[in-house]
Model the fold of this input.
Amino acid sequence: QKEVEQDPGPLSVPEGAIVSLNCTYSNSAFQYFMWYRQYSRKGPELLMYTYSSGNKEDGRFTAQVDKSSKYISLFIRDSQPSDSATYLCAMRTNFGNEKLTFGTGTRLTIIP
Amino acid sequence: DTEVTQTPKHLVMGMTNKKSLKCEQHMGHRAMYWYKQKAKKPPELMFVYSYEKLSINESVPSRFSPECPNSSLLNLHLHALQPEDSALYLCASSQEVRLGYEQYFGPGTRLTVT
Done:
């Protein structure tokens, strides 16, 4: 079993829809959770960063963490064609280990 | 400013060549990272530098040689690469390697080994 599971998609939704992207994880030591957006042939761009369980909102993006279920989500409201990209979840422990563990990424396409 | 820059953007090299990838950040970050990313795969950690000292080497072959000349610069020296080393090489930085500091990525160098 992989430490982090993420549906690779592809996921296609119409413009304006709410998008839900999810990751599950098995290592209960993960404490920090990140979402990166990666456009084709570009480096990952940090979107959201959360530590505790609960919700964190930034504009059209909401990150949700449920540590009891080992489940994290990224919601995109009012989706735009410019949101079309691969979304990677990443997480790390609090042991001072520098290593990020990534999900495989979900390819998202917003259809105009 | 959360910018990490990388040069070159693209690199084609033969298996006998020696080349270097460069990464630069001016955010005062003290941790810098090299990742390798194959198509449709997540980034794989190669090296971590903390305060200009190599902190992690993820069992990377010796044909990849990292160097951190100062706190703003990170190089990756390449020698005798194989075609399977063709990938997007990403540099990242964070304020510290300790917990809680998110990593910012550069745009990457797309390397093709012929």
